[in-house]
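User: Fold this; tokens only.

Assistant: Input:
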Amino acid sequence: MMGRGWWLLCVLARGLEPAERKVVLGDLAESDEGVGAATCDLLGLIVRRQAGLWTVWRPWLALLGISGLAGVPLSRIAFSLNVDLGQQLMAYLKYGVHFETGVTPRQDMAFLLCLAVALLFWSWTCGFVLGSLSGRAVWLTWFVFYLIVQDSAWARLVLSGNIIVRDRRPLPLLMAAILPLSIATFLFSLSALCGMYLGVRRRALPLRPAYLLASAITILTILATWTSGWYETAHEIWSGGAWRGVSWPKRQLPFVLAGWPAAYLLATACRHTKERETI
């Protein structure tokens, strides 16, 4: 069995553990099966192995806790950063002025910078915990997590009628849905991929880095909540009190949900430290 057929089998076999992959490829090389039959047998084995990964709770926590619980608010945060940053860049590049938001240009810059840095930290932490929990199921949990962060915010606005899609051709829509074409989604993708790669390899952080990461995310969450309140105060003053600002807990909730994996990392690091001390 040579040529492209063997190359395809080698690629598919990457879904198996290295030791098992070597044995399976050796058996296929010695068999008289055709490429089609060998491919079906290999795919069946991969499906059974992948299904076995979901008999424990860890991949499910990655899928529901990271992709769902943290991914949805992270998508809204990235979408908000894209919109706010795009407005400021468009106004400055086209007219040379600051886009009026009710706050000063310095406050706008401080909020956008704080949100961008926080997005990097949240994304890296989510990616690390996703990789740590998923193991070999990470290809599926990562794909779901990425699509939720990339698309859920604008999909909700499209379905509610707040955004009208003028170009309905399949290819542009597919590219917009899959590729990280905006600044915020690019920052998310790069940071989350780095975290996921380390999470798959290391599975846990030492106690000191976990404390530092949790402290940094806590500070960034407080700063993001505080700076976002500037706009609520400005809108309330501008409307003469008719537009009531969003309360601190409601503003903070999406940031807390996006950063909850830091608490999981800290708890895991503390547990591993105690286990080593008792040995």
